[in-house]
Amino acid sequence: MEKISLNGEWQFRQYGNRCKSLACNGWNPAQVPGTVHQDLLCLDIIQNPFYRLNEKEVAWVAECDWAYQRKFHLPQDFNTDAPAELIFHGLDTYAEIMLNGHSLGKSENMFIPWRRRVEEYLKPGHNLLEVHFASPMKKTSEIAANEGLPFQNGGGIPERGYARKALYSFGWDWGPRLATSGIWKDVELVFPYKAALSDVHFTSKVEGNIAYINVDASVTGYKPGCYTVRYMLSGHGYTETTQKEIIDPTESTFTASTEFAIDNPKLWWPAGYGDPSLYNLHVELLDGETLLDTKDMHVGIRTVELVQEPDEIGESFYFRINGVPVFAKGANWIPADSFLPRVDAPKYQKLIDMAKEANMNMLRVWGGGIYEDDAFYNACD
User: Fold this and answer.
1) What are phi and psi of 40, to 5 degrees?
2) Which of 97-101, 201-205, 247-251 has the lowest mean pLDDT?
3) CA of residue 150 relative to chain centroid, distance
């Protein structure tokens, strides 16, 4: 699989006539991943919204529509018949995507990737990718008005409950009202071959001295064929390889599963109860001997149980890890910044290290934020 990153230098401007401010009408430099607030900060059009009452001075940003664009080049011998996918891993939030003047569709969900087949719209030479963002404040108000019912959820902006957007950005008791817009995660053009790995799911169960492992590999097929999925699990002196062959002449998506059984495995334990032992999982997708795609993961072998049993005051509620009752000590994890692209892997690691130093062994990911980044979970592991 070949990939072209479309991160980096973009341009942005106000779009349409929905905003009174004329502070940013022409095209200006922008960075992706990012948010419009970050781009305006870099241009000194707005001041630090976390200083004094500047939060109120930048409220106009969320009332505006914004446009982003990027020009990119493909070689003259580019094959326009080969499969090509455009993937936005995060669009915040009400966006229409345009490629070379063609509307590819809209996104109204900040939390999930947006992807489309685009080979028919690409061309050799220069290409233009555009994203138009509607004001999150005005869009949510329109949705609420069309629904005809009030939606109350904890103060702030009641209409926010209609948005598939991180609710804290509309304001909360612990944070400012900075309703962001922008391309907040990676953008890429992907050129798969005949098939690609879309997901790998690992589960484990420990019984006695044996760990039973199940791995599901989801495969997206772009052309019918006979494919092989090869699994390699290793670590702590253990190495094993299995593979499964799939003939798929019709379906575009299918799953290949395999199982491992490990004697005397090294278990993953939470902080304070043992070592967080991890194994290496390597998955390959092949067409004959041709490697089409790979995925690598660090995985922990453990059994997690939520114990709810009658007791002297009602019913218990605690976790048992690998058969051992665990006393949960932790905190409520909110997003680490109002501007999410500023939270990189080192910042996640620093914050998780601080939680461990404070003798925590559990974090609850708060529901008004986001589905946290893999870097968060990797740091926790």
Assistant:
1) -70, -35
2) 247-251
3) 30
Run of H or E including 139: helix 136-147
Cis amide linkage into residue 33, ω under 30° from 0: yes
β partners of residue 220:
196, 253
List, for residues 142-183, the tens digit of each pLDDT value.
Answer: 888 887 665 555 555 677 778 899 999 999 988 999 999 999
Pair type for strands 310-311 and 314-315: antiparallel
Buried b vs exposed e over 167-177: b needs ≥16 C-beta within 10 Å?
Answer: bbbbbbeebbb
CA angle (139 as vertex; 138, 143 as ends), nearest 5? 115
What's the angle, vertex CA 243, arms to CA 242 and CA 246, rounded to 5? 160
Residue 177 · residue 157 · CB < 8 Å: yes
Q: Residue 130: which H helix or E strand, with range?
A: strand 125-133
Amino acid at 212: Y
User: Which CA distances in Å does 200 have to 203, 220, 226, 283?
Assistant: 10, 12, 19, 8
Pair 12, 21: CB distance under 8 Å: no
Cα-Cα-Cα-Cα dihedral sign, residues 186, 187, 191, 192: positive
Beta bridge partners of 325: 320
Contacts of 29 (CB under 8 A, 6+ apart): 9, 10, 11, 39, 42, 43
Amino acid code (one letter) for 167:
L
In whole angstroms, what is the distance from residue 177 CA to residue 126 CA? 39
Residues of the chain above pLDDT 90, percent:
80
